[in-house]
Write a structure and sequence with these properties.
Helix 1 crosses helix 3 (about 25-40). About 45% of the residues lie in helices and about 20% in strands. The protein has 14 helices and 10 strands.
């Protein structure tokens, strides 16, 4: 603003007879203001009411690529894209009416033809009699700011449209941002939850977990894929996978108490995944149990097919097969084979006199004695 006022005063003095008669201190002041204008990083230029450029500082040369020799006497439209010529016409009309234009965000063209985003402040230049004789413009390159704004808008759109709950909080746990997915997941709208503490979402038995998370964030650590439990607005628990990261300031420092600002959290509902995992585990357990029972049943069938159900020794069919198999082996290898056949005398009398249950007990005990007596490699 001081630079514009300097141009306005300089124009007034240059058009006034009093300027030519000015005292040395005033001349020194004007020279100082001219030096300030010429050394400014902003593009500062003067133009007549028809748009002819009359002043051009080093900042203008830096931003637009033209030297003062190239631009003095040229029309300001040299810097204006064709689709914004009407804008320039309106600017000059407003200046002629004595209006001041503050922070007009627009586009101009560099010497190499590339567009540049600019913020313009334009003020009328008056002569010593107060008549408007031109316009002073301060132009500031806002391309980086515009790019940063666009990036913020895009990131904000991504956050808002994400299926994951995304929220921001300070280091004391105060919630500062809340996307649509967070509302869907937790049941709170942004107006209800922003400004409240994140502990609102944490079960009482997990408050220490939250304190630990915030402490890790203060140290600049990132917490990835923490599986935990949070509470919805209606009080129901929800299994979550959380990723929490420090929020850093523009200089890359972590902001807040001693440079830390807070944390961003991405929360994903894993309840359905947990239910599926539980269902898969239950199905595997059921399958394993069925296979175990099937194996046991097959074993029982095999046992019944080969052994006497009362005594547990080989039945007649299995015994005959075993005798034939071992006789063949003995003959092939020229080795002796022993076969013992036991006959229980008068066993029928036992059954007739004492009953079949006792007779069965005698047979079982006899089988046990045979198994205990013979070697392990013998076939009973």
């Amino acid at each position: 603003m001081k630079a514009i006022r300097a141009i306005e005063r300089a124009g007034a003095w240059a058009s006034s007879r009093r300027a030519r008669e000015s005292s040395p201190p005033i001349e020194r002041g004007l020279r100082t203001l001219a030096a300030i204008i010429d050394s400014s990083d902003d593009a500062i230029l003067g133009k007549t009411l028809d748009g002819s450029i009359t002043a051009w500082n080093k900042g203008a040369e830096k931003h637009y690529g033209y030297s003062a020799q190239e631009m003095l006497g040229e029309n300001i439209c040299t810097l204006v894209p064709p689709d914004r010529r009407n804008e320039m016409k309106q600017i000059l009309e407003r200046v002629q009416r004595g209006e001041r234009i503050d922070h007009l965000e627009t586009v101009r063209i560099r010497k190499d033809g590339t567009p540049i985003q600019m913020s313009l402040t334009i003020s009328p230049i008056r002569d010593g009699d107060g008549a408007i004789v031109g316009a002073a413009t301060i132009a500031r390159d806002i391309s980086e700011r515009k790019q940063a704004d666009q990036l913020r808008f895009e990131l904000a759109a991504i956050v808002e449209s994400s299926d994951d709950a995304i929220l921001g909080k300070t280091l004391d746990g105060t919630i500062t941002s809340w996307n649509a997915a967070a509302q869907k997941l937790y049941g709170y709208c942004a107006q209800e939850i922003i400004g409240k503490n994140v502990s609102t979402l944490v079960p009482p038995d997990r408050r220490e977990e939250l304190a630990g998370i915030l402490e890790r964030i203060r140290r600049g650590e990132r917490v990835g894929h923490l599986e935990t439990v949070r509470i919805r607005k209606n009080g129901t628990p929800i299994e979550m996978s959380l990723t929490i990261s420090p929020i850093r300031d523009g200089d890359g420092a972590i902001v807040g108490a001693a440079t830390i600002v807070g944390a961003s959290a991405i929360a994903r509902d894993i309840s359905q995944r947990r239910r599926m995992e539980a269902a898969v585990a239950a199905a595997r357990d059921a399958e394993a149990e069925a296979n175990r029972m099937k194996s046991e049943q097959v074993g029982r069938y095999r046992e019944l097919a080969n052994h006497d159900p009362l005594t547990g020794v080989l039945n007649r069919r299995s015994s005959s097969e075993a005798i034939e198999r071992y006789m063949a082996l003995a003959e092939r290898h020229g080795q002796p084979l022993s076969l013992a056949v036991l006959d229980i005398d008068r066993f029928k009398q036992v059954n007739d006199r004492y009953g079949h249950p006792l007779g069965d007990a005698v047979l079982r005990r006899l089988a046990e004695l045979m198994i205990e007596t013979f070697r392990g490699e013998d076939v009973v």
